[in-house]
Amino acid sequence: MYTRACNRQLMLYVKKTFGEIMADLQTQFEKFHDQIKLTDEKKLLREKRDILKNNLEEGFKKIDEAPKIDTYLLQGSYAIHTGIKPANDDYDIDVGVVFDCSREDIGALKLKNMVKNALDHPSRDPKLKNPCITIQYSQNGENTYHVDMPVYVKRDDEEGYDLAWGKSSSSEKWVQSDPKGLVDAINERYTDDEERSQFRRVVKYLKAWKGNKFSFNVPSIGLTLTAWDMFSSDIDPFDNSRNDLSALKKTVSRIHSSFRWIGTDNGMSDLYRLEAPLPVVPRNDAFEKLTDKQMTELWTKMGYLLSALSEAEREERIDSACKELGKYFLNFPVP
Description:
By secondary structure, this protein is α+β, with helices and mostly antiparallel strands. It has helices at residues 4-18, 20-36, 40-61, 76-80, 108-119, 179-188, 193-213, 220-230, 244-258, 292-314, 318-325; strands at 69-75, 91-99, 127-128, 133-139, 142-149, 151-154, 161-165, 173-177, 260-265, 269-273.
């Protein structure tokens, strides 16, 4: 009788006979993950975030009839545990501030300028950007890290918040947004600990790849959302052993095949696009600012990445497989 125990023995035999390369590659992937993930930087970013929060609260105490701060929202890759060491060494953290008022109580630009002035300090120069206020820190003339602080007010319907948008009177407006809902949706999609951890590693690999291969900014949230939607895990059900190469390859394959042909460029070159809609309001496409040519370049280079992952999976020599991956992942460890 063919039992579960027999199946387990068969799987272990197959892994022992054919899986040595995969096991070794997993070791290399985990070493690469250790290279790119945030470690000591988290403590520094937390300290800077807390200093800014304290400065903001002290500054608002000096403003007559200023709205009260209700809460802070940790956002971005820091909140969903997919942050990596940036190629340009300019670390970032996103922390939103929510005020206990509504859009009818104060203008978007007026509130943003209040926050900017409260954060002004001889050691830093807060700058207004459309979606947030950015506080850049530098050392010896080089950018070292920055904090992006979006400014929100409450909504009566409690469906997210209203984001203060704009950096001038011509661009000033309120935009409905749900940053907390977005973080919760991504963090709660995969409930199994091993699967969730592998998903986060796959996102980090994709971010490391895009930081090494593109001259323009491919939105990290776009890659994260497409991976979130199309992630395909590879974890052995018997011993929980992980195969990040396989999971990354299957995920990239699904993403690449989801691009759609949209026509040609002046009748010469094919153009492709992929949408990455936010699962919460405002539900816009995270790739909407990329041109058709940029999206097509993303499709093309993702195809090259998929070929390299497939080649590494077929390669019999561990060092050769790692050298192939090193063409796409900077400093990928070769045993």
